[in-house]
Amino acid sequence: MPFIVDVTALRKSYAGGFEALKGVDLQIEEGEILALLGPNGAGKTTLISTICGITTATSGTVKVGGHDTVTDFRAARAMIGLVPQEINLEPFERVQNTVKFSRGLFGKPANPALIEKILRQLSLWDKRDSQIRELSGGMKRRVLIAKALSHEPRVLFLDEPTAGVDVELRRDMWEIVADLKRDGVTIILTTHYIEEAEAIADRVGVIAQGEILLIEDKEKLMARMGKKELEVQLSEPLREIPSSLVSDVLRLKKDGSALIYSYDTRGERTGITKLLADVAAAGLILRDVETRQSSLEDIFVGLVHEGDAP
Ligand SMILES: Nc1ncnc2c1ncn2[C@@H]1O[C@H](COP(=O)(O)OP(=O)(O)OP(=O)(O)O)[C@@H](O)[C@H]1O
């Protein structure tokens, strides 16, 4: 099946010569949720804006639903819904009218039943006659999503949908995204919140300094790069690791209360039995042991940090 979004060798230099995208390739399958993670200034918004045809690429091609976003702009744009980072709504307009108007801009005939469905899905139906200025920040974000969905796009871009919203609303947003996926909408979102990618994405892309450093199925990524740690809590804190135990995979917790042992979950042997025997032989008394899996956050920080290296 052809990709619903197909980006090839995309470059963008802004006036002044700053290269915000340095040859990005990105293929997205219909119906998936892709989370793009990256530090400030990585190029996430530039990438989304270029795919949506709001920013002009310096070179490279973008196809959405098989339509080139330059030579076949209208057909490509009709397939795309974009929820921008900034709230750019008309304060005196009413919710329902704003959403209807957005649909009209795409030359689509009025469809009150669809607008009602969208407003209900986003819990905005009760607010349909409110003026935008009367809404809370979270409600305004929902209106942005409703506008973006009004022309029935197949691909929805959400640029930091939950930046600055409270925990409850963030969870509501995640449910909204899951609902849209069930309706078959492909979703690409940018985020600074790793737990957001962990919670909702099928695939995760990491972008830094205008390049995609990695793009992979979330579960596989976590299994492949995941390391485990064993924390051996001691009954008496230590000042330093006893010489018989010194190794590159063992470190002392800052307060000296525990030894932290890293091991690879894929290895045939974890080395834990030997470690515990060595700990006992060194005369240390254990209080407790705990294991933990490294998170997407550890993976992300490691990658972006590597990207900074000269
Ligand atoms: N119109 C512009 N003119 C010149 N430089 C720009 C312009 N827009 C963005 N940039 C630069 O391009 C780089 C990428 O910006 P972009 O907004 O795409 O990053 P981002 O990953 O979305 O960041 P954030 O997470 O902070 O939103 C930044 O260094 C930014 O300063």
UniProtKB/TrEMBL annotation:
Gene Ontology terms for molecular function: ATP binding; ATP hydrolysis activity
Keyword Transmembrane helix: no
Keyword Zinc carried by entry: no
Entry-linked Pfam families: ABC_tran (PF00005)
Keywords of this entry: ATP-binding, Nucleotide-binding, Transport
Domain ABC transporter: 5-234
PROSITE patterns registered for this protein in UniProt: ABC_TRANSPORTER_1, ABC_TRANSPORTER_2
Record's protein name: ABC-2 type transport system ATP-binding protein
Phylogenetic classification of the source organism: Bacteria, Pseudomonadati, Pseudomonadota, Alphaproteobacteria, Rhodobacterales
